[in-house]
Amino acid sequence: MSAVERDPEGSDEVVDESAGEAAGEPDDAAWAEVTPDAARRLLVAAVDAFAERGYHATTTRDIAGRAGMSPAALYIHYKTKEELLHRISRIGHDRALKIMRDAADSGGTAAERLDRAVRSFVGWHALRHTTARVVQYELDALGPEHRAEIIELRRGTDAAVREMISDGVRDGEFEVPDIPGTTLAVISLCIDVARWFKVGGARTPEEIGALYAGLVLRMVGAGEK
Amino acid sequence: MSAVERDPEGSDEVVDESAGEAAGEPDDAAWAEVTPDAARRLLVAAVDAFAERGYHATTTRDIAGRAGMSPAALYIHYKTKEELLHRISRIGHDRALKIMRDAADSGGTAAERLDRAVRSFVGWHALRHTTARVVQYELDALGPEHRAEIIELRRGTDAAVREMISDGVRDGEFEVPDIPGTTLAVISLCIDVARWFKVGGARTPEEIGALYAGLVLRMVGAGEK
DNA sequence: CCCGACACTGAGCAAGCGCTTAGCGTGCGG
DNA sequence: CCGCACGCTAAGCGCTTGCTCAGTGTCGGG
Questions:
Q1: With an 8 Å Cβ cutoff, is A53 touching chain B?
Q2: Which of A2, A97, A208, B197 is buried most deeply by CB count within 10 Å?
Q3: pLDDT digits (tens, 9 = 90+) for A97-112
Q4: Residue of chain A minimizing CA distance to B181
Q5: Which residues are CB-neighbours of B35 under 8 A, at least 6 positions away?
Q6: Whose CA is nearest the C1' atom of nucleotide D21?
Q7: What pLDDT does residue B26 have?
Q8: Nucleotide nearest to B75 (CA to C1')
Q9: Which of A176, A156, A172, A46 is nearest to A104 (CA)?
Q10: Residue B130: per-residue pLDDT
């Protein structure tokens, strides 16, 4: 049982998010695209610190300390603390959007695609809850132009979900009176996983993904499976 | 059409939350229990500031300024900034718990009670989204003992929802495979309203409450109405 | 007309913040 | 073996933070 659904006609090069460390916490491999090494260590430290205490409560000294460096080292790789948050937010949202789009563009019925979407989107929010928490809840700490950029990415996620629901309604699979409202509720439900998920909890990310996929299919009235 | 469901056998003295200002924002009347007047003005100012910028990004000077007072005046009525947050959090959670319990203890079928619960709980999170945002998302800013106290209140909310769902399953009204998981998802869905709700949005708090109540009834498989 | 109680202010303290700068060690091209 | 570019640190600058404290104006009782 693989964690994240492997879609048949997905992208060419897929970094399997669930491989490597099964525990979920030390998601260093997920930031492979960040170079050089010291910059990545700082970024991972920042993700942990931001998720734990929030952006404003985190000091640059704390971030540098977690990365095993002096406070000044941070400013060799990042112009400001806000730039660090932006890099994290950008990469995280790119990843979340890709997960959603891959599911939306995969084959099968609308119900199958929505199931895959919720399953992997929720799975990511649980497995990478540290990243997801920063990405989803520290948006207001970004500067205006950076925030606008991220909001644009979120619109893409929104559109993908609305698309799947609309398709299902068109094909008679779903029965939903308020498509924009239900879209909002579905995404809202998925995102909030990042707030409450704890590593020692009763459920694995995959289990939560499966549970939520079922609940969402009920929300859209997918009675006939 | 009244905003918050008026349960027939509810409590004796009910402060109608939706009365007074229809706009929703200046919820000064909701804090009538806070005295003296200056203490309440400071608390309302703190709610606005915390909701807007977050607890850590808010300065005591900002709070005092919004209340039209000097920074030092804050410390006549509150020992620390954290005590202010605690008072807000305590009152807000008391209110949220009461809303949930009133619905759970009201008469009728499990579906009717769950409908009322989600409708009013969500309605409150939308109408009082400023308060709700602080109450639901600034929990980590509280000191350990204050946080523990609030978490205890949340357990009560959780229990009320689980109770209603369990009753529905017992009576054959609902069909849910995972009661604790579904309980969690329902509360999660409701709480996240406070994150995304904006006053200028397309829907009123009552409309969102109605939409969400319908979605939740689908989640628990309440097919036979 | 005085007096103390009271709610509040102006000024400011110690600590901690984001960020800068001068300098140091190390490794690599010549 | 030199020299310099590079990644990093120690020290610290200017500012803001939560919070304090010596007053100040006001007001009711005697």
A1: yes
A2: A208
A3: 999 999 999 999 999 9
A4: A211
A5: none
A6: B72
A7: 55
A8: D19
A9: A156
A10: 96
Residue A142's closest CA among A188, A88, A191?
A: A88
CA B32 – C1' D26 distance (Å)? 26
Distance A113 CA to D5 C1' (A): 53
Q: Angle A56-A57-A63 (CA atoms, 0-180°, nearest 5)?
A: 95
Average pLDDT over residues B159-167: 98
Q: Which amino acid is at B152?
A: E
Which pair of tokens denotes residue B130? 């400023």
Distance D9 C1' – A69 CA (angstroms): 9
Between chain A and chain B, how many beta carbons pairs sit less than 8 Å apart?
71
Among B21-25, B43-47, B83-87, B140-144, which is the least confidently predicted range? B21-25
Interface probe for A, chosen from B187, B189, B218, B225 (most Cβ of A below 10 Å), is B218
Kindly list the distances between the CA atom of residue A61 and the CA atoms of A64, A70, A89, in Å, as whole numbers in the listed order. Answer: 5, 7, 21
Asked whether A215 and A208 are in contact (CB, 8 A), the reply is no
Rounded Cα gap, residues B65 and B42, in angstroms: 9
Cα A184 from chain centroid (whole Å): 16
Instruction: Chain A: give the shortest CA distance to residue B219, in Å.
Output: 5
Question: How far is it, in rounded angstroms, from Cα B195 to Cα A140?
Answer: 11
Q: Which residues of B121-156 are buried (b: 16+ CB within 10 A; e: fewer)?
A: bbbbbbbbbbbbbbbbbbbebbeeebeeebeebbee
Residue with structure tokens 């909310």?
B157
The CA distance from B204 to A144, in Å, is 27
CB A17 within 8 A of CB A4: yes
Cα B57 from Cα B50, distance rounded (Å): 8
Q: What are the phi and psi torsion angles at A202 (to 5°)?
A: -75, -25
Judged on CB neighbours under 10 Å (0-12, 13-18, 19+), A69 is middle
Question: Is A81-219 in CATH node 3.30.750.24?
Answer: no
Burial of A54 (0-12, 13-18, 19+ CB in 10 A): buried
**Could you tell me how many helices (H) and strands (E) chain B has, helices first?**
10, 0
pLDDT cut 90: percent of chain A above it? 81
> In whole angstroms, what is the distance from residue B160 CA to residue A86 CA?
40
Helix axes B81-105 and B144-170, enclosed angle (nearest 10): 10
Is the distance from CB of A170 to CB of B182 less than 8 angstroms?
no
